[in-house]
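Ticket #4471: complex job returned nothing on first submit. Input attached below:
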Amino acid sequence: MNIINKEVVIIGGGPAGLAAAVELYKKGIQDILIIERENTLGGILRQCIHDGFGLTRFKETLSGPEYAQRFIDEVEKLNIQYITDTTVLSVTKDKKITAASKNGLIIWQAKAVILTMGCRERTRGALGIPGERPTGVFTAGMAQSYINLHNTMIGKNVIILGSGDIGMIMARRMTLEGANVKAVFEILPYPSGLPRNIEQCLNDYGIPLYLSHTITNIHGSSRLTGVTVSEVDEHLKIIPGTEKEYECDTLILSVGLIPENELSLSAGVILDIRTKGAIVDENYQTSVPGVFAAGNVLHVHDLVDFVSLEAENLADSVAAYLEDGNLLACGIKINTSGEINHTVPQYVSGTKEFKLSLRVNKPLRNCVIAITQNGSEINSIKLKKAIPAEMIQIPINHKLLQSDKDLEVCVKC
Amino acid sequence: MKQIYDVLIIGAGVVGSAVAREMARYKLKIGVLEKNHDVCFETSGRNSGVIHGGFAYEIGTLKAECCVEGNLEFDQVAKELDVPFKRTGKVLVGNTDADYKSLQNTIAIGKINGSVGLEILDKEHLHELVPTVIGEFAMFSPTSGIVEPFHYTIALAENAKMNGVDFYLNHEVVGIHREEDGTYTITTTQGNFSTRWVVNCAGLGCVKISDMLGIPGYHIGGTKGNYIILDKKLGPLLPMPVYPVPSSTYMGIHVTPTIEGNVIIGPDADRVDSFTDYSVAQENMDFLAESASTLWPQIHKSDYIRNYCGIQPTWLDGNGVIKDFIIEAREEAPHTINLVCIESPGLTSALPIARRAVRLLSERETLQPNKNFNPNRKGMVRFSEQSDEEKVRLIAENPDYGEVICRCETVTKAEIMQAVHNLLGVDTIVGIKYRTRSMMGRCQGGYCQMRVAEIIQEELGKKVTDVLYARTGSNMFTGKVRE
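Support reply: We reran it on our side without changes. The output follows.
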């Protein structure tokens, strides 16, 4: 079979892939190919018809398709090559990409591969919610796809489990389409989505949000007939005797996103068990030289604006990699503890500035996030409020770093 | 028009489908009545998918006899029906002196039953076979294997259909009446059928049908077993099923690789009265994970994909001992063949049971061979299992092979189309899932379910409100968002 050579192959034409392609092109790398499995570019943004995208980047509020279109227009204008309706089947360590389309099997040999496959949703089975298994249980993204892309209404009386952003957005969306959204239940004592969505999607429509509640049983042998909801204590253990029954024909799950890294694994990329994305250095290079990752495939973001930015930063590194054939080794490990679950990147070289992305694992007030090395502080930021729903980014000046000691990131309250 | 059959089989589980196929070897007009929308929808589709060696059953029982017979012929059967089958072998792992004695006893019984190659392995040999298991020693059964129960049952039913058997899905039997001329009128939820012979293969409904046939006195209970399915990435760590040392009534919670490369853990065994409650309780899931971890410490909640349960019809005698299969033709119910209490090892035993049912029929009337009978059936070509060269060829022949619909399991549109137009006329979402594995992967249909639902509507001309998930009443959608 023919093997087609490409300088850079980008897997996934969503926001991360598009931003990486445009930025690479502007850096003078023109032999690029974006591979997209759907019939149009845009990724998950195509089904996100609500507004609120682009506030950080464009200083205006756009719908998902509008935000994507700005990048698609750039790709078209620059004549960057892309291929749709094509699903990548495997990526190898030596950067050979095999994909299937109606035209046949295609194999590319790339000098650099950019992984921008996005994420998938956590399911009922993964959570292990007990009960019967009727139809009428959908993840929030599936519900969104059915309604916004497939013109299909999935139910009338709706309960939502999980206060993730897509779940709240679907609470509003289904209400606007005439469904009765009864309540949103969240097992944690705080919401997992953004405050603006609680305000605009729940409060504005009188949809109650119950914290420290979860679903402990699902009823219905054919279509869903109801759910049992229980309260949980501070250890998230179910409190017996608090069960309440809710009638509904639809249960929407908004219980987390998981970076979709099956192709990364086929290439031998090592994943971080905390982020479930690749372990990367400041160049967004994975454990496989020449294979890079950005966007939700790397770690789940709160705003698409940051996805675009991350992919553009990645593009700078890819350009440098192609020019020099390799990148500086990154031997400084970044450790986290306490209220900080993880950071991206996980390794740095100490030779260039970088931005540390992280999240706190519980809501904090008046806290200081400090980055230290060998006991001395490199940088710190004071936050009046930090919540798990929001990503925090901290710039680090490399000149303050020693080359042979780990960095520690922790919260001081 | 009134249908007149030589034989009507009630129930399209693995046994009903096997009986249909075996009876199709003769010149008989055969029909199968099934209350669900698909074959394999109750006990047959909800189990461990293990082809058993036959060592675990009392000497001289039908269970022992049929299981060994079924096991030994399974390579040939799998080849004829084009069903993936792996003779993986299996280990029963023990730790104590009592375990050791019990396993030696199992070997002694197994040898008399005709189970082949049973031996005790020491720790070193056990870990050579299954490095990740915890245990001091094991009994090894080299002939045990794994099969996908859906594929096997669908293959049997399709092969029967190819050979002229009619399948009536969504036809629940509500009454059976013996006419004066000796024929039976069977009333279903979708009309009446006439037949000279009735075969009861109703599984969990066997007592109900038995009563309708005029054979009262059977009482069965349900044994419910829960399972958890784990991610495919664990498959390579488990080359064969790993069981604990069994008790006299229960095989114990085991870990089993599936033919598709997942791992399943289970089942527990709860005695239940309801034969329709397929709920899985939290405490059962917790118990499964805890028990199975003592055998195989690779179980983490982050690898859960799904859980399910099955219920099998169990007939216990007064001492709590499980009774044998019943395969009978009783004088008080002429022209009936009554199969009662077909539980594990029913999957392994299905064809031997079917042949015994045929024998009962042939002892009562002369059967003419069906010269056109074809025992072979082809399954669909699965894109993900092909070499690159073969993939190229498939796409060139049918471009739908180049359109991947299910990302997790790499199922293409060509396979979905073949499943949507399946031989038995099954039109549910789960029907497509059983036939293709779409929606069975780690995202559980998050990416492909809407595509499959759309193809069902387009190809079968269904309205959006008529798409069923699995059962009557399991309508997926309430309508269009905009007309």
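Chain A touches chain B through 50 residues (CB under 8 Å). Closing as resolved unless it happens again.
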